[in-house]
Amino acid sequence: MPALKTLIKIAKVLDVTLDALVNDSGAPVQEVTIKDKTLIDKVRLIDDLPEQEKNMILQVIDLALSKKKFKDLVQQIG
Description:
The protein is mainly alpha-helical. The chain has a domain of 44 residues. 68% of the residues lie in helices and 0% in strands. It contains 4 helices and no strands. The radius of gyration is 18 Å and the shape is extended. The termini are far apart. 0% of the residues are buried.
């Protein structure tokens, strides 16, 4: 994949947004707002980890999110 600077130049030449250039599905990309800005730094650090360590962290995150979704579902039902 080309570097971000290269993609910006291509988008300017084609007179399109970066989103339109890299989002090949045609569907609009959902905007994400992160309240805790330290999460951005943590995600960058995780991305630099070896693949095995990164996968372990992502599994822990998935487990925590599944647990929260399950609790929320139980509260809605009960």
